[in-house]
């Protein structure tokens, strides 16, 4: 399982080094995508861009940021590919030239109707340069811009045709615009710095990184337009659909120091652990979490159960998230060098092991094996989410349910496969209560209803498969 991306944008009322602000913001969002990074700077309608494969720190240096120059607007992006290959052509921002100006766009999420729209455009002669659904969004906006008087009205019209998840930050020659889809699948918030610069980001932790004061999250369906040093909002799409925020933002994707839609990510994870301890108690000596997203859930499990909490693993901080690794073989190798059990903590102990999910079962089987080799006598696996049984079409890279272990095995069988003495999952009922009440989560991957029409082909490589692109 992987997440799509992180987006960032800044509008300064005075010309300054906005690229460096974007750089710091993307550093804070690095956990959302580790394949590539990019920044586009707008200096009075002149756009300069740099993007490349790699982590933010590998892509940008002082010299690189200096070459981007000063400006009043910048947009930035970190990417993991949920649609299209991880090649250089698919790195964002997407910079578009059209007869009414230029546009730089960054996108987090996944369109459910991207293939349908792309085929429609290509049959009319459109030429695409990437294999991403983000370019489909850019193309739709540009098409609407040709017949609308402003970029924001074009975006509003484009939203009538887009189905699925999209949190966007867009720079026109004179405006910075942020957009959240009407279901609110993915997070998007904004803040203001002490010198009155407006900042948009996927998570509030990126606002903290540039010393911006959090104002609020964008509403589902809301468009925010910054122009002339002022912000205004178009809420014509708000309330068009029920809110369906991805619950896994709270369980795994978001950074624990972020706040989303008024709720603390850290406290939501602790609450998940508390619910888990009530539903699936374990006869154990210690509770440990799998770093990093399992730690808060383990703390909640410990507090509710009364079993002492312990730090059972040392994490190599220089290794990226295992979920981000593109191939299973690499993922398993990453686990081995990423986590090392602390023998004096787990040796001779009955361990309650808490993690946020089991997807294929390979990673947790390896972690359980590490604990066994370190001397743990019993391992009781507890998972702070329900079993994954369905594909996701909204930005979580589970495009095929066949690979999901819970689709083919009972809980008892999964416990045997992964080598656990017992296994317990969080219930569907409680996963919707992580923020204190049911605030409108998307739980389709746990067997809930899909909020949109299901696409005929939602595989990551659907454009290459259907249209015949060379992926080499």
CATH topology call of the largest domain: Glutamine Phosphoribosylpyrophosphate, subunit 1, domain 1
Number of β-strand runs: 23
The strand order across the widest sheet is 3-2-4-1-10-9-11
Taking all residues together, what is the mean pLDDT? Answer: 91
CATH superfamily of the largest domain: Aminohydrolase, N-terminal nucleophile (Ntn) domain
How does CATH name the architecture of the largest domain? 4-Layer Sandwich
- Supply the number of helical segments: 16
Write down the Rg: 22 Å
The percent of residues in helical segments reads: 25-40%
Give a quick account of the main beta sheet: strands, pairing sense, barrel closure: 7 strands, antiparallel
General description of the model:
This protein has helices at 18-28, 56-59, 62-68, 114-123, 133-145, 151-159, 204-209, 248-253, 265-279, 295-305, 328-338, 343-346, 362-373, 411-418, 428-431, 462-467; strands spanning 5-16, 36-43, 46-53, 71-79, 94-98, 101-108, 167-171, 176-180, 189-192, 198-201, 213-217, 223-227, 230-234, 245-246, 259-260, 263-264, 286-289, 313-315, 339-341, 350-355, 378-383, 422-425, 441-442. With 472 residues, it is an alpha+beta fold. The protein folds into two domains: 5-244, Glutamine Phosphoribosylpyrophosphate, subunit 1, domain 1; 269-438, Rossmann fold (3-Layer(aba) Sandwich), CATH 3.40.50.2020. The chain has a seven-stranded antiparallel beta sheet with strand order 3-2-4-1-10-9-11. A six-stranded antiparallel beta sheet has the order 5-6-7-8-12-13, with helices on one face. Helix 5 (133-145) crosses helix 6 (151-159), helix 9 crosses helix 10 (295-305) and helix 11 packs parallel to helix 13 (362-373). The longest helix is centred in the middle third of the chain and has 15 residues, at 265-279. Mean pLDDT is 91; it is low at 321-326 and 465-472.
